[in-house]
Amino acid sequence: MASPKLGVGSRGLPQPQLLVLLLLLGPWPAAGHGGKYSREKNEPELPPKREPGGEFRMEKLNQLWEKAQRLQLSPVKLSELHADLKMQERDEFAWKKLKAEGLDEDGEKQAKVTRSLSVILAKYGLDGRKDARAVSSNSLSDPTEEDSLEDPRLEKLWHKAKTSGKFSSEELDKLRREFEHHREKVREYNVLLETLSRTEEIQENVISPFDVSRVKEDVLHSKHAELKDRLRGINQGYDRLRKVSHRGYDAEAEFEEPRVIDLWDLAKSSNFTEKELESFREELKHFEAKIEKHNHYRKQLEISHQKLKHVESLGDREHVSRNKEKYAVLEEKTKELGYKVKKHLQDLSGRISRARHNEL
């Protein structure tokens, strides 16, 4: 039997001799792993890329989004959270740019971004508190299962308005949105109040140089001012709800959406010229139309979700596939509109804040 042949190198050398020759020529870096002075070892590592399909550029926001999905929040609540997280991401990147330019020495912008995230965590039950999980329910499709208004005074006003006979079905829906908007303002106020209390406790237990302490005091003062503004808005909102609940809606009312009504009341008490106020009024009309469009898609998303669950229970694959496609389109559109509404709201609120600041 013939012996097995040895492999031959490119110059006709037997394979073992070629191997010895290569070893004698010097050290060779392993494939894919650079030596001490290789390009791979001396160039900075690229930052880890975001996972394909990740919703956000910031990993911590992706983690919050994934946690919310595990909590099985309703589709409408998830779309609202998505818009809030997009706004949070936008604000955090803006703050990082300011910080890099040395324009947030007192830390006020950083504190505001942190407070904003705290509000989001509490609002959607992502802060680990069991009592916050109530926010996960959503009753757009079933008005008989209403979320608690969390305030006996509000519950009493709402019951009185419902049974008064002064409101049409459409007006009751509108009034309910106003009550729920007021509840959200109270929730956000309570989160800010708790955040401020924790910050003050930390400051009392930390000894800092005078200049640093002064900066912290300035930040705390700005928080107190924000709390006062929010409390004033809550009190004004409650007075309005009380009047509307007793008298009904004014046929000559300028606006219908709660957020727009709040903005208009603030604008009228700000340092706008007559021309600026008229321009702001027109912009609020556009904003209200945008909110109404968003509300329409929120309702359609909830209906689509209920329909999809029904079709899935029947097991018809073709119908399930079609409904999933429709649901996915509605979901993306609702997220997109939600972000646009929140961004527009932030821009309008900023204009009012600047006008109020100028009059001081």
TrEMBL record:
<dbReference type="GO" id="GO:0048019">
    <property type="term" value="F:receptor antagonist activity"/>
</dbReference>
<dbReference type="GO" id="GO:0050750">
    <property type="term" value="F:low-density lipoprotein particle receptor binding"/>
</dbReference>
<dbReference type="Pfam" id="PF06400">
    <property type="entry name" value="Alpha-2-MRAP_N"/>
</dbReference>
<dbReference type="GO" id="GO:0005886">
    <property type="term" value="C:plasma membrane"/>
</dbReference>
<feature type="region of interest" description="Disordered">
    <location>
        <begin position="132"/>
        <end position="151"/>
    </location>
</feature>
<dbReference type="InterPro" id="IPR036744">
    <property type="entry name" value="RAP_sf"/>
</dbReference>
<keyword id="KW-0175">Coiled coil</keyword>
<protein>
    <submittedName>
        <fullName>Alpha-2-macroglobulin receptor-associated protein</fullName>
    </submittedName>
</protein>
<dbReference type="InterPro" id="IPR038001">
    <property type="entry name" value="RAP_D2"/>
</dbReference>
<feature type="domain" description="Alpha-2-macroglobulin RAP C-terminal">
    <location>
        <begin position="149"/>
        <end position="360"/>
    </location>
</feature>
<feature type="signal peptide">
    <location>
        <begin position="1"/>
        <end position="32"/>
    </location>
</feature>
<feature type="coiled-coil region">
    <location>
        <begin position="270"/>
        <end position="297"/>
    </location>
</feature>
<dbReference type="InterPro" id="IPR037999">
    <property type="entry name" value="RAP_D3"/>
</dbReference>
<dbReference type="GO" id="GO:0048237">
    <property type="term" value="C:rough endoplasmic reticulum lumen"/>
</dbReference>
<dbReference type="GO" id="GO:0005793">
    <property type="term" value="C:endoplasmic reticulum-Golgi intermediate compartment"/>
</dbReference>
<dbReference type="GO" id="GO:0070326">
    <property type="term" value="F:very-low-density lipoprotein particle receptor binding"/>
</dbReference>
<dbReference type="InterPro" id="IPR038003">
    <property type="entry name" value="A2-macroglobuin_RAP"/>
</dbReference>
<feature type="compositionally biased region" description="Basic and acidic residues">
    <location>
        <begin position="37"/>
        <end position="54"/>
    </location>
</feature>
<feature type="region of interest" description="Disordered">
    <location>
        <begin position="33"/>
        <end position="54"/>
    </location>
</feature>
<keyword id="KW-0675">Receptor</keyword>
<dbReference type="GO" id="GO:0008201">
    <property type="term" value="F:heparin binding"/>
</dbReference>
<dbReference type="GO" id="GO:0010916">
    <property type="term" value="P:negative regulation of very-low-density lipoprotein particle clearance"/>
</dbReference>
<dbReference type="GO" id="GO:0002091">
    <property type="term" value="P:negative regulation of receptor internalization"/>
</dbReference>
<dbReference type="Pfam" id="PF06401">
    <property type="entry name" value="Alpha-2-MRAP_C"/>
</dbReference>
<keyword id="KW-0732">Signal</keyword>
<dbReference type="GO" id="GO:0005768">
    <property type="term" value="C:endosome"/>
</dbReference>
<dbReference type="InterPro" id="IPR010483">
    <property type="entry name" value="Alpha_2_MRAP_C"/>
</dbReference>
<feature type="domain" description="Alpha-2-macroglobulin receptor-associated protein">
    <location>
        <begin position="20"/>
        <end position="131"/>
    </location>
</feature>
<dbReference type="GO" id="GO:0005801">
    <property type="term" value="C:cis-Golgi network"/>
</dbReference>
<dbReference type="InterPro" id="IPR009066">
    <property type="entry name" value="MG_RAP_rcpt_1"/>
</dbReference>
<dbReference type="GO" id="GO:0035473">
    <property type="term" value="F:lipase binding"/>
</dbReference>
